[in-house]
């Protein structure tokens, strides 16, 4: 059995076996890997007297560089949440963090 060791990434970071390469471990990619899962997105809206902090509960429909889209399974309502307001995301089940070897949208995509 051959053990893998961390390797230097293209941007000077270290890539650890079993984890997304440094260039690919952005929150948007982690959310995409977990599309279809029920999550809570904790968001803070500074200088807002009505609702400074909110928790959005829903199923991940999509995630982009600057946003996440959740759908509420009870109401069908969809929320587009800009990432700038996202503090953290909680999952009630295991989080997918790596693409299957040689598969998925990041397998052939160049780093950003």
Describe what is shown at a glance:
This protein is 6% helix and 35% strand. The protein has 1 helix and 7 strands, in the order E-E-H-E-E-E-E-E.
Explain what the structure shows.
The chain is mainly β. The protein has 1 helix and 7 strands. It has one helix spanning 27-33; strands at residues 7-8, 14-15, 38-44, 53-64, 67-71, 78-82, 86-91. The chain is globular and about 45 Å long.
Instruction: State the low-pLDDT regions, or none.
Output: 8-12
Q: Which strands sit side by side, in order, in the main sheet?
A: 6-5-4-3-7
Provide the β-strand percentage band: 25-35%
Mean pLDDT: 81
Rg measurement, Å: 16 Å
Query: How far apart lie the N and C ends?
Result: 34 Å
What is the makeup of the main sheet?
5 strands, antiparallel
Number of strands: 7
Protein structure class: mainly beta
Silhouette: globular
The percent of residues in helical segments reads: under 10%
Task: Give the helices and strands, then pairings.
Elements: E1 7-8, E2 14-15, H1 27-33, E3 38-44, E4 53-64, E5 67-71, E6 78-82, E7 86-91
Antiparallel strand pairs: 1-2, 3-4, 3-7, 4-5, 5-6
